[in-house]
Amino acid sequence: MLYDTDRIRALVDVRQLARRYWGEPAFERPLYAMYHCFVHVDRRASLSVRQDGYRCFGCGATGDAIKLLMLLSYSAERPEVAFCKACAELSDKLVGLSELTVPPPLAAWSGPPGADFQVALQTLSELAQRALFARGGQQALHWLCVTRGLNESVVRQAGLGWIDRLASAQYWQRVLTELGLRLAVSEGILLPWHSAGQWWGIKVRRPQAAHSLRYTQVTATDERRSEAFRPRLQGALYGVDDWQGERPRLLVEGELNCLSVRQVAADWLDVASIGSASAQLSDSWATRLSGASFWFDADSAGQAAAVRLAGQFTVTRLIGSTADANERLLDGSLRSFLQDAL
Ligand SMILES: [Zn+2]
Question: What pLDDT, in 10s, does the model give residues 181-192?
């Protein structure tokens, strides 16, 4: 018996098969669902299942609907028998399904750089988020919650993650390779930059470096197009997606400053971060920043940024303080300081 394997691959949604065997995914997005891998011991949910197949970022396992069914239902059979049984079962499901019901092609790993990049960064960010809350991320989580004083709910809402590259370099290297991204990522806290509904990039911050803030801004290269494209953090505003409007607005320097302020003042204040004192903001932010207050670090770079941006936008006030938002969060004075200052 011959089976139309192309038709099976085009019409069967592997995500439905995965759901049948494993139930609800660890998390799900429009184009893929993530599960704990069935091939290796997997604490992170590294198995990405898409309409047309599955791929594990941990062990490299990959396959289509037929292979998955062979492994899960017919592994006791000889391979050629398992193949025929899997094809027969999947073909039965497709009886009566017209070719016209072929779903529109999904953005593939090799699709346009924009869409690819969105999916890749989202996947990378979600895997890092899971790693932060897994056993290997305990130290990083401790640094965020105890050393920096952030609540776990703020950390979760911000989607912070942990890249434990030193502990499992191969894992992250495989993730990046499979996502088609050639990235320079070091071990550290992953800060996702999501602004105005788009991924702009990620930053990785090494938690050990209290004073020399060594941020790694991700640079991605799409090898298939032999054309470099960079996530342009410059010009984005960190945290602006959470603005509710009609409230006092505050612009701060660093992302963690932004999260500190959000933690104590989210009930009455909208806060965003420019990421670094050297950031350039496009004039398109004028409407949202008009009338905002700026609070940058007391060092010379922060003060230069305050003067520069106050010249570009209509600022209501510049807040000065030798203690920054993180320090005030830790000593308990942040909320009352903001209430007095604004
Ligand atoms: Zn695996």
Answer: 766 666 788 888
